[in-house]
């Protein structure tokens, strides 16, 4: 995670910004609510204060270190309902900042600045350049400065209202900055976030610099302001048409009121013409853009057909992903429900080097991100009322996760329910109860596609990535264990999660050991576990065998399977059948989910012994047997649970409160 550096004590009316070429050396005082130049910010001055304790002077940083240590030992995820919402700045504040900035910086060339809210960042944080729309303010990430500043070095481009730098010269200015920073840190990616005109500049810069590692993040790309600006150009002032405007246009109206107060009509016309030429230039160079790109588009953009434009770019850019925010309007970056940092993390677009490292580049969810995930999955916990059991060192079985090892590396190996029903309660409960983040080792279909087709959009799996899932591979497994992570592994994989009728609670593990020798290499504890309850929430009525009897569905299964990366191509038996299909499930009145974590199996003192394949295979079979025992135990004990049925649980909660834990069988 990005480290937090010392606070910067800066007067609210002072900023040093960077103008001209690459913008690293020329500084001037101008804007309010903005901070030091990137050149100064990369190595900020530290302010050290002292306090006395028992007659001794202690550096402030030592007290800060103790506080951070205390925070690490507390669980910030334990009560998601009590996590406060993130209060972002309002549109009114945004418009006021724009107006103030217009007044204070009418003259001068385009320049870079770093907003005060960005704070300090880790030394190895990647650089993020924000390129504004046709307004040129550079404040488009107004609501995101604080969170972005924790993981990026932020430079925003400001184009003064009276400046008439051409589109071509703006591209050259950004290009000079890009090449200068690339020369300074050739192994560090440079992110370019652009909207409207800024998106066009970003695409042209990328096309002209194929050797530079640029990551493009484009919001509602296209000519988004054309309609409204043309109204202004024709003399239709915003207040004359407010009554006919939708929510998007009302927001645009307020924005244009600010512009109309400050910009002469001819300036607006000039900027509009520049936007048209920018779009033309960007479209003509799309074929040369080979960079990684993330398109962010709004599902309810009533100013511009953002989804259609994003889809067009998606098919033209070879390393492109897109995310559609169905409930958002045109002003995506300014909406309360949109979080740019969450979008970047969820899409696995955050990296420090040339290649993404799913382990070292991962940033755990913030408390608020966790709260949103908890709220979206809260119904699963409510209707299944999970019972979790663990085993203490002395072999005693207890309710809760007290028997789970605190220190990693730990490898959890268990049974995969149909469609992975067990995952949400499992991962959420580990964070809430033990402050342990389970790093799931997942199928590559959640991260990439062999080809485009009918599979779920990759955005459907963003929550899994946000919660730490990594694509299955030997290198990722190695990195998780070497970093002392708590890793979650399902040896049965797709075959187990997409089982057939009558196969619930049956393990489909490979014949040969896949994880024991790697676990022993790092002395990882192996925790076998079982889960039951899928047959209490739904009945599988239309399975793989049924669907393969129907020609059209057989073709559909074949197409789905061809879209995903194939695993275990050298395996034999049922586990080698990696066909992807959509099970037909009839819901039931929900029963209950039960989880049982067996006694941890130590490998720390057996590293040399388990290098022997036969010995390792014996441990592998032992783990499998323990998982089967856990499942058998739960299937038997749930019959004794008086609250297995949803209705009895609701009656209990009505009497004792809906937050009261519901009892279960005797242990």
Automatic annotation (TrEMBL):
Which ranges are annotated Polar residues under compositional bias? 39-54, 73-82
Gene3D superfamilies tied to this protein: alpha/beta hydrolase
Segment Disordered: which positions? 39-83
Q: Which UniProt keywords apply?
A: Acyltransferase, Transferase
Instruction: Tell me which SUPFAM superfamilies the record gives.
Output: alpha/beta-Hydrolases
Which residues lie in Basic and acidic residues bias regions?
56-69
List the transmembrane segments.
none
Q: Where is the AB hydrolase-1 domain?
A: 165-341
What family, per the record? Belongs to the diacylglycerol acyltransferase family.
Which protein is depicted?
Answer: Acyltransferase-like protein At3g26840, chloroplastic isoform X2
Q: Which gene encodes it?
A: LOC107888440
């Amino acid at each position: 995670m990005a480290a937090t550096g010392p606070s910067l004590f800066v007067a609210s009316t002072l900023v040093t910004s960077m103008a001209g070429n690459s913008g690293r050396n020329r500084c001037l005082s101008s804007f309010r609510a903005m901070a030091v130049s990137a050149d100064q910010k990369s190595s900020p001055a530290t302010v050290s204060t002292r306090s006395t304790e028992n007659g001794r002077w202690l550096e402030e940083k030592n007290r800060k270190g103790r506080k951070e240590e205390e925070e690490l030992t507390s669980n910030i995820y334990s009560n998601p309902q009590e996590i406060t919402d993130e209060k972002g700045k309002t549109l009114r504040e945004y418009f006021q900042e724009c107006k103030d900035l217009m007044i204070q910086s009418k003259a001068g060339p385009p320049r870079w600045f770093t907003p005060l809210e960005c704070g300090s960042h880790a030394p190895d944080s990647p650089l993020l350049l924000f390129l504004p729309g046709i307004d040129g303010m550079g404040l488009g990430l107004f609501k995101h400065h604080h969170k972005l500043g924790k993981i990026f070095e932020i430079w925003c481009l400001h184009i003064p209202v009276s400046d008439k730098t051409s589109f071509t010269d703006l591209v050259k200015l950004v290009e000079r900055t890009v090449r200068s920073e690339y020369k300074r840190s050739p192994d560090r990616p440079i992110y370019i976030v652009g909207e409207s005109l800024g998106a066009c500049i970003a695409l042209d810069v990328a096309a002209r610099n194929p050797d530079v590692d640029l990551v493009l993040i484009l919001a509602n790309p296209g000519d988004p302001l054309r309609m409204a600006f043309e109204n202004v150009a024709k003399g239709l002032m915003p207040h004359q048409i407010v009554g006919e405007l939708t929510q998007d246009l009302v927001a645009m109206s307020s924005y244009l009121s600010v512009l109309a107060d400050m910009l002469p009509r001819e300036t607006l016309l000039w900027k509009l013409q520049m936007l048209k030429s920018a779009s033309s230039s960007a479209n003509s160079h799309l074929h040369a853009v080979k960079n990684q790109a993330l398109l962010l588009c709004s599902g309810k953009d009533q100013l511009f057909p953002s989804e259609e434009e994003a889809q067009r770019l998606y098919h033209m850019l070879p390393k492109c992903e897109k995310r559609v925010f169905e409930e958002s309007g045109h002003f995506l970056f300014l909406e309360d429900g949109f979080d740019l940092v969450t979008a970047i993390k969820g899409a696995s677009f955050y990296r420090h080097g040339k290649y993404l490292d799913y382990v070292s580049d991962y940033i755990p969810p913030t408390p608020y991100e966790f709260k949103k995930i908890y709220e979206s999955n809260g119904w699963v916990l409510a209707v299944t009322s999970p019972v979790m059991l663990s085993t203490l060192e002395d072999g005693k079985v207890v309710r809760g996760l007290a028997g789970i090892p605190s220190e990693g590396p730990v490898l959890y190996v268990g049974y995969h329910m149909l469609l992975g029903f067990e995952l949400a309660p499992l991962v959420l409960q580990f964070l809430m109860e033990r402050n342990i983040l389970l790093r799931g080792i997942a199928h590559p279909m959640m991260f990439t596609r062999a080809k485009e087709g009918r599979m779920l959009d990759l955005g459907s799996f963003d929550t899994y990535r946000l919660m730490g899932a990594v694509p299955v591979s030997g290198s990722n497994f190695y990195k998780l264990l070497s970093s002392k992570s708590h890793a979650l592994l399902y040896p049965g994989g797709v075959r187990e999660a997409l089982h057939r009728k009558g196969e619930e609670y049956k393990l489909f593990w490979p014949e040969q050991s896949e994880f024991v020798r790697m676990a022993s290499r790092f002395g990882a504890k192996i925790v076998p576990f079982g889960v039951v309850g899928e047959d209490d929430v739904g009945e599988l009525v239309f399975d793989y065998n049924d669907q393969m009897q129907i020609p059209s569905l057989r073709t559909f299964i074949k197409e789905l399977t061809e879209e995903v990366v194939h695993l275990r191509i050298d395996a034999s038996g049922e586990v080698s059948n990696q066909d992807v299909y959509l099970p037909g499930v009839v819901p039931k009145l929900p029963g209950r989910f039960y989880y049982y974590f067996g006694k941890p199996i130590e490998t720390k003192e057996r590293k040399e012994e388990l290098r022997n394949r036969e010995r390792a295979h014996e441990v592998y079979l032992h783990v499998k047997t323990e998982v089967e025992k856990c499942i058998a135990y739960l299937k038997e004990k749930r019959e004794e649970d008086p609250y297995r049925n949803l209705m009895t649980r609701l009656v209990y909660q009505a009497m004792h409160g809906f937050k009261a834990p519901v009892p279960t069988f005797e242990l």
